[in-house]
């Protein structure tokens, strides 16, 4: 996935959430609706999350140093994990606390500004829908026929999955808030407002948990997508004219969304000199880089003698 596509989705979501957060806070101060407060804090947390994603993308572009010789690509994973923590604490737990408080001390929405929450929520649904549409458009360019669940679980770039889940949660949260506010206005019972707030809190906690699991997996280190690894392995072996007899094993690890560490052992057909070995390694490396396309490879190839007891792939693959 291109970093540019993820950045466009993040920026679109940032501007939408900043505007929505301001209007929701205004609506809360006019009506003291707990659903509006929960949604305002939710939008504020989302805005902070998008700033974290943008900062992580910038930090990941730093050049390698003597201490961090493989670069800083995993910074994007780190900030994606921080986003899940912010969404859980600032969004989910705050909404659940506010729901508990309002359930114990319900207050109806009264006064001349009763219509403001409804207007704000309807406008916010329109703005969030536009942001969600941008995220869907950017994701469709790289989804490659995968289901949305497969795309979120399999993506090596954190930005689009994070924005997709945040925007989906935001739209559902707005519907929950509209539900709570509408029933509070119709019945005069402020506990419906608390119910809407609680639904928002549960939703945000669940989304944060999904994000945390996915970002943890990326932080620990994931191998290349099976198709990508298969293409690289096929390229290392090459055609009948190459001097590679067979691949002994391959290990891959994403050190960033667009950076892949590749370590492989292969058996050679023949080697009469060190120059033959070097030429074979260089040719295999060039073929692997060409097969990886836009993916940057940090590649280590080692010729060895093939033994049937040495497996090509690690256990579990």
Give your account of this protein's structure:
With 317 residues, the protein is mostly helical. The protein folds into 2 domains: 3-220, Up-down Bundle (Alpha-lytic protease prodomain-like), CATH 1.20.1510.10; 226-303, Alpha-Beta Plaits, CATH 3.30.70. It has helices at 3-31, 34-59, 75-104, 116-143, 148-154, 159-187, 191-220, 226-237, 274-292; strands at residues 244-256, 259-268, 296-303. Strands 1-2-3 form a 3-stranded mixed β-sheet. Helix 6 runs antiparallel to helix 7. The longest helix has 30 residues, at 75-104. Belongs to the cation diffusion facilitator (CDF) transporter (TC 2.A.4) family. SLC30A subfamily. The chain crosses the membrane at residues 6-30, 77-97, 109-127, 162-186, 192-213. Its main location: membrane. One of its GO terms (biological process) is zinc ion transport. This is 5-aminolevulinate synthase.
Strand content: 5-15%
Averaged pLDDT: 87
The number of helical elements comes to 9
Number of domains: 2
CATH C-level class of the largest domain? Mainly Alpha
Q: CATH architecture of the largest domain, please? A: Up-down Bundle
Using only CA atoms, what is the Rg? 25 Å
Main β-sheet: number of strands, strand sense, barrel status?
A: 3 strands, mixed
Helix content: 55-70%
The ordered H/E elements are: HHHHHHHHEEHE
User: In total, how many beta strands?
Assistant: 3
CATH topology name of the largest domain, in short, is: Alpha-lytic protease prodomain-like
Give the terminus-to-terminus CA distance: 23 Å
Write out the strand line-up for the largest beta sheet, numbering strands in chain order: 1-2-3
